[in-house]
Amino acid sequence: EDQVTQSPEALRLQEGESSSLNCSYTVSGLRGLFWYRQDPGKGPEFLFTLYSAGEEKEKERLKATLTKKESFLHITAPKPEDSATYLCAVQANAGGTSYGKLTFGQGTILTVHP
Amino acid sequence: GAVVSQHPSRVICKSGTSVKIECRSLDFQATTMFWYRQFPKQSLMLMATSNEGSKATYEQGVEKDKFLINHASLTLSTLTVTSAHPEDSSFYICSARVLYLGSEGADTQYFGPGTRLTVL
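Above: the input entities. Below: the structure tokens describing the complete assembly.
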């Protein structure tokens, strides 16, 4: 069974204080690892997809990296508008009628104080 | 980008009534859509995979007769909560699968804004 564990559950930062969120996973053949941002009362917003160990992707103050067992979402000099829940999900190389489905972690609630 | 809409955004109904939620891909065609449920302060739980033109595939523990899914076109999937009860109150979110969208990568799910269902 595919599993995704995110840590920490919650993270409070001061504006400008860089940090990282962790996503550990076990999957029967990784097809892709996804990062999403979710604001309260809204659907998740796509951020990144990573496909293989060593891959990195950046978007503004966010940088996602991937190893064979975990992924990190680095936040550089965060601003209050970066406050949200960050979700990690994996997609397995599985066939069948549920092909393409994602398994989500519990998320990390990030709060950035001005 | 890939835009997904949901309607309604919020619905309040009486116990025993049925509620239909629509999920549309606005600027692309989606052969596969997914339906999720999210409880407060919890992550997304996949309910079912909806494939255009065929029957939906439900996750273990999800009642097929309770949550009816229809994916009649490449841009529309609907979720009907039949005979809704207070325990069905939740945040329902759909996603549409895009196999390739430029530099953002292959086989990505884009999510709708969600529907808040409250059953009295």
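Note for the figure: The mean pLDDT of chain A is 93.
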